[in-house]
Amino acid sequence: MLSSFQGKLVRDGVDKKAVICIEGNIASGKTTCLEYFSKTSNIEVLTEPISKWRNVRGHNPLALMYQDPERWGITLQTYVQLTMLDRHMSAISAPVRMMERSIFSAKYIFVDNLFSSGKMPEVDYAVLSEWFDWITTNISIPVDLIVYLQTSPQTCHERLKQRCREEEKVIPLEYLESIHQRYEDWLIKKNSSPLPAPVLVIPADNDLQKMLQLYEENRDKILPANYL
Ligand code: TTP
Ligand code: MG
């Protein structure tokens, strides 16, 4: 159910829940982090709707975007924005929600990067920005904590090659470097786009075993004790 508070649409009951967004470069380990915490009781985990981005009514906007960003960037990003909004607005079934990325990184990292690297026409950027501004002005999207998995672009490049998602085979190191730079400006230097929540940084260049250990060590900082 939706209600209205101070002119914004609000999902009922959301103020009594904690929302934690896991952020980081492509292949930084967000899904692994979420899977680890999904074993904790009282947590609802939402991984990214990437299967939708690869198949909307039989079309693959993710693959199209990588083939020709100037033509298909707006198509993918419009759909990413819709699916992220849908995630943020869905009813929360546990005291704590952890989710992969947010509507904020889709805009501040990916859309802004497409535009500033000259791969998105100005009119497409204007339309996407109008949508984003309308959404964030009129709909309440509460986030309580951002967990930033901080990696080097090289690590992500290695992991990408190992994981071998068909659409991502064309991603060069330079692309991961620009995404990395945008994340650092947003979440570390805090000099680019607005921050929707406080940031907890976890170094994420380590192997899986060490990452699981770090997640455990940071458990109390990530999960608000009063909600569990
Ligand atoms: P990620 O959101 O980084 O997800 P991931 O599963 O690769 O990360 P991790 O290993 O840390 O779990 O990216 C998924 C793909 O979608 C990737 O190719 C980048 C692309 N993408 C966009 O092009 N635009 C966007 O706005 C978003 C959010 C992703
Ligand atoms: Mg993932």
UniProtKB/TrEMBL annotation:
<keyword id="KW-0237">DNA synthesis</keyword>
<dbReference type="InterPro" id="IPR027417">
    <property type="entry name" value="P-loop_NTPase"/>
</dbReference>
<dbReference type="InterPro" id="IPR050566">
    <property type="entry name" value="Deoxyribonucleoside_kinase"/>
</dbReference>
<feature type="active site" description="Proton acceptor">
    <location>
        <position position="100"/>
    </location>
</feature>
<comment type="similarity">
    <text>Belongs to the DCK/DGK family.</text>
</comment>
<dbReference type="InterPro" id="IPR031314">
    <property type="entry name" value="DNK_dom"/>
</dbReference>
<keyword id="KW-0808">Transferase</keyword>
<protein>
    <recommendedName>
        <fullName>Thymidine kinase 2, mitochondrial</fullName>
        <ecNumber>2.7.1.21</ecNumber>
        <ecNumber>2.7.1.74</ecNumber>
    </recommendedName>
</protein>
<dbReference type="InterPro" id="IPR002624">
    <property type="entry name" value="DCK/DGK"/>
</dbReference>
<keyword id="KW-0496">Mitochondrion</keyword>
<dbReference type="Pfam" id="PF01712">
    <property type="entry name" value="dNK"/>
</dbReference>
<keyword id="KW-0547">Nucleotide-binding</keyword>
<keyword id="KW-0067">ATP-binding</keyword>
<feature type="binding site">
    <location>
        <begin position="24"/>
        <end position="32"/>
    </location>
    <ligand>
        <name>ATP</name>
    </ligand>
</feature>
<dbReference type="GO" id="GO:0071897">
    <property type="term" value="P:DNA biosynthetic process"/>
</dbReference>
<keyword id="KW-0418">Kinase</keyword>
<keyword id="KW-0809">Transit peptide</keyword>
<feature type="domain" description="Deoxynucleoside kinase">
    <location>
        <begin position="20"/>
        <end position="211"/>
    </location>
</feature>
<dbReference type="GO" id="GO:0004797">
    <property type="term" value="F:thymidine kinase activity"/>
</dbReference>
<dbReference type="GO" id="GO:0009117">
    <property type="term" value="P:nucleotide metabolic process"/>
</dbReference>
<dbReference type="GO" id="GO:0005524">
    <property type="term" value="F:ATP binding"/>
</dbReference>
<dbReference type="GO" id="GO:0005739">
    <property type="term" value="C:mitochondrion"/>
</dbReference>
<dbReference type="GO" id="GO:1901135">
    <property type="term" value="P:carbohydrate derivative metabolic process"/>
</dbReference>
<feature type="binding site">
    <location>
        <begin position="159"/>
        <end position="163"/>
    </location>
    <ligand>
        <name>ATP</name>
    </ligand>
</feature>
<dbReference type="GO" id="GO:0004137">
    <property type="term" value="F:deoxycytidine kinase activity"/>
</dbReference>
